Amino acid sequence: MSIRINDTAPDFTAESTAGTIHFHDWLADSYAIIFSHPRDFTPVCTTEFGAVAQLAAEWSKRNTKVIGVSVDSVEEHVKWKHDIEAFGGAAADFPIIDDTSLTVSKAFDMLPAEFYLPEANRTPANTATVRSVYIIGPDKKVRLTMTYPMSVGRNFAEILRALDAVQATDGVPLATPANWQPGQDVIVALSLNNEQATERFGALDIKLPYLRFAKAPK
Fold first, then answer.
1. What distance lies between CA 109 and its chain's CA centroid?
2. 7: buried, middle or exposed (CB in 10 Å: 19+, 13-18, 0-12)?
3. What sections of 55-155 are H helices per DSSP?
4. How many CB atoms within 10 Å of residue 4?
5. Of all helices (H) and strands (E), which one includes residue 47?
6. Residues 45, 84, 130, 162: which is the catalytic one?
7. Disulfide engineering: 192 pairs with which of 42, 60, 197, 201, CB 3.0-4.6 Å?
8. How confident is the model at residue 150, as a pLDDT?
9. Tens of pLDDT along 124-136?
10. What's the whole-model pTM score?
11. What is the largest CA-CA distance in the chain?
């Protein structure tokens, strides 16, 4: 069953490079990004995990924990982290889950429509398209999902931007326009009339009766 926006993120217990993870307890009152990849020691994945490591200060600034999912073991993850850090030039301090059982991948619907997993000689092609991203709120609800094919590396600058947009609009009657960047004006929801919107968010820039911009709250 697919994971939808506003679903409660599946809870799980799994071993990881940071020890045993009880996911909802680990999340606590933070946002989280859980992201999967086909297998350790593969080229695209190494560049991606290096990018995540480089953004450590940005995740922390946004009260966001990141956690990787792979079908390999903790022992393999620990070995692979040396390559990630060598390529990325930053410490890969975030947990990487051991999902050799596919429990987490199946719970989060991270597998392709058809997949085949032999017990031995598994290759990245056996778990093609296990390259998913979920942004989860402190209330354990799924805020955003993305899925990429195995051949397309993720743009973590865009994932960071999407996280900013999620946090800027979480629980308030606001939305972000196309190509929005932090600090730019936001869209006021139609649930507020002009008077209510002005009282709450200040002067409006009304482009159309249903398209009203305001300064992003700080």
1. 14
2. middle
3. 56-61, 74-88, 103-107
4. 9
5. helix 43-54
6. 45
7. 197
8. 82
9. 565 545 689 999 9
10. 0.91
11. 65
Nearest 5°: phi and psi at 168? -70, -25
| Tokens 């850090």 -> residue | 85
Of 108, 113, 112, 107, residue with least CA distance to 124: 112
Would you say the C-alpha torsion 16, 19, 25, 26 has a positive or negative sign? Answer: negative
State CA 216 to chain mean position distance.
Answer: 23
Nearby residues of 102 by Cβ (< 8 Å), 6 or more positions away: 71, 111, 117
- The two tokens of residue 175 are 């939305």
Q: Does 45 qualify as catalytic in the annotation? A: yes
CA 162 from centroid of its chain's CA atoms: 9
Residue 30 CB neighbours (<10 A): 15
Q: Which of 39-48, 111-120, 169-178 has the highest mean pLDDT?
A: 169-178
Say if strands 64-70 and 96-98 run parallel, antiparallel, or are unpaired.
parallel
Report the 10 Å Cβ neighbour count for 191: 8
Query: pLDDT tens for residues 160-214?
Result: 999 999 999 999 999 999 999 999 999 999 999 999 999 999 999 999 999 999 9
- 218, 209 Cβ separation under 8 angstroms: no
